[in-house]
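[step 3/7] fold_predict: job queued, chain A
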Amino acid sequence: MTTKRVGAFGALITVLALSTSACGGSTTSSPANAGAEGASNVDAQASLAAAYEGIAGKPPTQSVPAEPGVKAWVVSCGQMLSTCSVPSDAIVEAGETIGWDTTICDGKLAPEGWSACIRQGVAEKAQVIFVIGQDCSSFVGPLQEARSAGITTIGVGANDCDVSGGEKLFSAITQRYENMTNEQWWNELGKLQANWLIGKTDGNLKLLEVKMEDARFGPWISEGLEAELKKCATCEVTSAVTLTNLDSASGALGQKFSSALLGAPTANAVAVPLDPWFLVGLSQAIQSSGRADGLAVIGAFGQEANTDLVRGGQAQDATAAFDQVWEGWSGVDTALRVLAKQPVLPAGIGIQVVDADNNLPAAGSTFTYVPEVDFKSLYGAVWTQK
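[step 4/7] structure written:
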């Protein structure tokens, strides 16, 4: 079995670029109060406890045959970002345990890169093509070509789209959690962000909300966060700013956020939907504002670089984290079940809020759940060699 990587690193684009159709950021001042009229106030400490507990499951227990020698192709959204490279590398690792020949192709954070990688997989006669974290609308044609070639295509942390007659374009997408659609799972992440913010402000939240609309998961996070805040009569979204991948790539992200923070003088908290943005302007902007000590700041995804910011008190206080190594392994499990003509089963991938005092992994370690789940051994126990 051989493991290969193809594609060079492109110029550094600093966020998980799920779409490049974004326009510039926009700021909305003084939106409607998030607290619904007549809503009873929440228990702040119970909200905080719920954020730390989060949701966490376990991989499926139903066995599935694992045929060795399968040629697999992994389309990474962009290997320069850990949000792309971690699940991509995890698919290679999982594939090695069952004797697969796995290649990573670097999509370099651009639709043309993702399309080119899918087409390379078709040309190389891959039997399975994994696509990491991308909405399928960015590469409909290449996916249709893979379908026509009889290749199994798996969206890992991805969203599907319909073709003629309502048929889905991917052969399957991973399902993160039992009885949750992708939309509901991202809603839950936003809810847990809200729980932490309510707890940290003792239910007196005045929030500057950062929004992302480049990809479908951005609005889903916002919906979950805002729905939970409506339960809190003394919580308020004082203003919101929409930032984009283009802002990050152009270097404008930090300045746009700084302007939004300046325009929200009463805010005591910030919610961000994407952790990499802290590393390309947000953390510096918060520190430069002189208000870091007075703001409760939470992000999402839980990358190692961001848990380092949390550990060091560097203008990110928390993150709603999930295990992206597990996500890669769940992609292989999904592929095995499709190849065996079995139903796709939920992976059990949960979400927990991490801050300096709770659920924080050791320095130099990636996020794992508390209590920790040995998902690799659990998958190994149900992947039966032919």
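[step 5/7] annotate
Confidence is low (pLDDT under 50) at residues 5-38.
The first helix runs from residue 44 to 53.
exit 0
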